[in-house]
Structure formats: C-alpha cells, structure tokens
Design brief:
Elements (H helix, E strand, L loop, with lengths): L3 E2 L14 E2 L1 H11 L10 E3 H7 L6 H9 L1 H4 L1 H4 L2 E4 L2 E5 H10 L4
Length: about 100
C-alpha cells in the first residue's frame, strides 16, 4: 500500500487504509491532478488582500484589467484567478508563473 494522504473512497472494491489511498487510487489521483500537488489554501488570496500584500506588483485596477483581458493574455489558461460568489481570488504561485511568462511593454 502506498501512503499517499487522501481520505477518499474510489469505490473500486479494494479497501484503502483510513486517510490513505491504495496504489490504484493514488494512480487515479495522479492522473486527475496531472501529477501536480494540490494548491494549499494559504496560496489563495482575495484580490484586495493580494494587492495589499504586493503593492509594488500591481494596483487593484491593473489586476482587474488583466482579469478582464484574461482570454488574450493567458491568465485564464494559467489558473491563477478564481471567481466564486462574485468574489475574485488569486492563486499566488500560479499568478507568479503567469507574470514571469508574460510579455510587458
């Protein structure tokens, strides 16, 4: 048995150890996530908190404009922005990667 933390029951008839996945479930999770580790909640910030924490990076209006233009600037594909219940959240590691790969004038 692998010791990949999960707590998820895949319903395949193989009994997983409590809070751990069997090898089959671990493989399925790897396929589902592309092998990447999951984003920690600490990596997600509201837009307002993001611009407060990184004031030299961009103003709130500049980030909102980038979000508005997300189809053209690659921000949508990056997965760096989440919209839930009318609120905007930034996934900081993904935003950083997008920013480093973006072209600036």
């Amino acid at each position: 048995m692998s010791k990949t933390p999960c707590g998820r029951n895949m319903g395949h008839g193989i009994s997983c150890v409590e809070n751990y996945l069997c090898d089959q479930c671990a493989y399925i999770r790897k396929l589902e996530t592309g092998g990447n580790k999951r984003t920690a909640l600490d990596d997600i910030m509201s837009l307002k908190n993001f611009v407060k924490r990184y004031p030299d990076l961009a103003t709130e209006q500049q980030v909102r404009w980038a979000i508005f233009q997300r189809e053209h600037n690659g921000l949508r594909k990056s997965g760096a922005v989440l919209k839930r219940g009318g609120r905007i959240f930034i996934v900081v590691p993904k935003y950083r990667e997008w920013l480093l790969q973006s072209e600036f004038d």
